[in-house]
C-alpha cells in the first residue's frame, strides 16, 4: 500500500457521486471498497474499485453488520457515505462502527442543514440574503398568506427525510421541488397535504442562475474552496445540474466569505456545498440550501483538479494538512441522460434550434468533461449505455408482456 494509505469504504456507489469518489481515491493508490444497492451500479464497473459488494438486506442493521464484517477483513478504514439517509442512519450507529474513520458530518450538524428553516435563520445572522419564505401551518394559514407572495413560487420541504415516512402513511408523494405559477395553483397543490397535517415551504422564485460554492472545513477554517455555475438543469425550471462550469475564485469573493461564515456558524466539519441563486442583473445571491454531503456535480470538481474526496480523506481521515492548489476554471461537465431529457423538453420552445446546436457543439468542445464517461475508466459508461438501451427496449409496445433472456 503506497505511503501507508488506509483503505476507503464508500457506501453508495450507484451514482456519479460515488463513482467520482472511487476514481479520485483509486487513482492515487487508495484501496477502495464500494457498497452498491444494485448489481447495475456504476461504481461496480470502475477499474479503480478494489472490491465491490451488494448492500446487505435488513435495513441499517444489515449494513452495519456488513461494515463490521468488512472491517474484520481489511482493518482500519475511512468510511464515506453518499446519501443523507445513509449518513443519518450511520450517525445513529457510530458506537458500532469502531475501527472506521467516519468522513461525514455529525448527527447534530446534519440536523441543522437538513432543517432549512434553521439554516435560513443562521444565514440571515451572517448577512446572507434568504428569499421570502412561508411555512404554512394549515391550509387556512396558506389561504390567508398566498395573496402576499410574488409568483412563481418554489415549494420544497424543510426536512425531506423527516417528512417522508408520515407522507407515505398518508398516501402522499414527496416532491423535492415543485413550482406554482399563481395562488390558485399553489392552494390546489397544498390541499391534499391536509391529510398529513404537513406542508412544504413556499419560497418566492429567485431569478438568475445556480451558483454552488464548495468548501472543505476543519476546526472552523476553510481548507479548500471551489465554485461553479449551473448552465443547465433538469427539469429546466430548476433541479439537478446537467451542465455546469467551474468558476475562478476571483469571482463572487464576498459571497464565498459569507459561505465560510455560515459554515463556521453551523460548526461544520468536512465538505459542504452552499447553493445560491445568483441574479447577474442585481448582483444578489439568494441562499437555496446547504448540502451537507458530497454534491451531484462532484465529477466537475474532480475533473477540474479540486480533488475533494482525496482532500477530505487526507485532512479528516489521515489528519494531514492540505493546501488550496489551483484548479482549472472554465471547465464544463455534462450529465448526459438528464441533459438529453432537458434537450427534448426545450426543443419545441423558442431558441430550441440554438439549444440543439449547443448540445452537439459541446461534444467537440475541448473543455468538456462528463459525469460518467472517462476514457481512462470506460466500464461505467458502457454499463450506463447498456442499461439505457435495455430500458428503452423493454418499454417498446408489446415488450412489457414478454420476458427476453439473453
TrEMBL record:
Alphabetically sorted, this entry's keywords are: ATP-binding, Ligase, Nucleotide-binding
| Residues covered by the ATP-grasp domain | 120-317
Q: Which GO terms describe its molecular function?
A: ligase activity
Q: Which domain of life is it from?
A: Bacteria
> InterPro entries this protein is in?
ATP-grasp
Return the protein name.
Answer: Carboxylate--amine ligase
Q: Which organism is it from?
A: Duganella lactea
Amino acid at each position: 500500500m503506497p505511503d501507508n494509505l488506509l483503505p476507503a469504504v464508500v457506501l453508495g456507489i450507484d451514482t456519479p457521486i460515488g463513482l467520482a469518489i472511487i476514481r479520485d481515491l483509486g487513482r492515487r493508490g487508495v484501496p477502495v471498497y464500494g457498497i452498491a444497492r444494485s448489481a447495475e451500479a456504476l461504481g461496480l464497473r470502475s477499474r479503480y474499485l478494489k472490491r465491490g459488494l451488494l448492500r446487505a438486506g435488513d435495513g441499517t442493521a444489515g449494513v452495519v453488520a456488513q461494515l463490521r464484517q468488512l472491517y474484520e477483513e481489511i482493518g482500519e478504514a475511512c468510511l464515506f457515505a453518499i446519501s443523507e439517509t445513509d449518513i443519518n442512519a450511520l450517525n445513529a450507529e457510530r458506537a458500532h462502527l469502531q475501527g472506521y474513520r467516519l468522513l461525514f458530518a455529525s448527527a447534530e450538524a446534519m440536523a441543522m442543514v437538513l432543517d432549512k428553516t434553521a439554516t435560513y435563520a443562521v444565514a440571515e445572522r451572517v448577512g446572507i440574503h434568504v428569499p421570502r419564505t412561508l411555512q404554512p401551518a394549515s391550509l387556512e394559514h396558506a389561504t390567508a398568506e398566498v395573496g402576499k407572495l410574488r409568483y412563481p413560487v418554489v415549494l420544497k420541504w424543510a426536512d425531506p427525510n423527516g417528512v417522508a415516512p408520515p407522507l407515505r402513511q398518508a398516501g402522499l408523494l414527496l416532491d423535492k421541488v415543485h413550482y406554482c405559477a399563481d395562488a390558485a395553483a399553489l392552494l390546489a397543490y397544498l390541499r391534499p397535504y391536509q391529510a398529513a397535517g404537513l406542508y412544504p415551504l413556499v419560497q418566492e422564485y429567485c431569478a438568475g442562475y445556480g451558483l454552488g460554492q464548495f468548501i472543505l472545513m476543519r476546526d472552523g477554517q476553510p481548507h479548500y474552496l471551489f465554485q461553479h455555475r449551473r448552465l443547465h438543469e433538469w427539469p429546466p425550471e430548476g433541479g439537478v445540474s446537467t451542465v455546469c462550469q467551474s468558476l475562478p475564485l476571483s469571482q463572487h469573493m464576498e459571497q464565498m466569505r459569507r459561505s465560510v461564515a455560515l459554515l463556521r456558524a453551523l460548526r461544520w466539519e468536512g465538505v459542504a456545498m452552499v447553493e445560491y441563486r445568483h441574479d447577474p442583473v442585481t448582483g444578489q445571491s439568494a441562499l437555496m440550501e446547504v448540502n451537507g454531503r458530497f454534491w451531484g456535480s462532484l465529477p466537475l470538481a474532480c475533473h477540474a483538479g479540486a480533488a475533494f474526496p482525496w482532500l477530505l480523506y487526507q485532512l479528516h481521515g489521515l489528519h494531514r494538512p492540505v493546501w488550496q492548489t489551483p484548479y482549472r476554471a472554465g471547465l464544463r461537465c455534462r450529465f448526459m441522460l438528464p441533459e438529453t431529457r432537458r434537450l427534448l423538453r426545450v426543443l419545441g420552445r423558442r431558441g430550441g434550434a440554438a439549444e440543439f446546436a449547443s448540445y452537439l457543439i459541446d461534444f467537440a468542445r475541448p473543455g468538456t468533461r462528463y459525469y460518467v464517461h472517462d476514457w481512462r475508466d470506460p466500464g461505467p459508461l458502457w454499463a450506463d449505455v447498456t442499461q439505457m438501451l435495455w430500458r428503452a427496449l423493454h418499454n417498446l409496445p408489446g415488450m412489457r408482456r414478454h420476458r427476453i433472456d439473453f
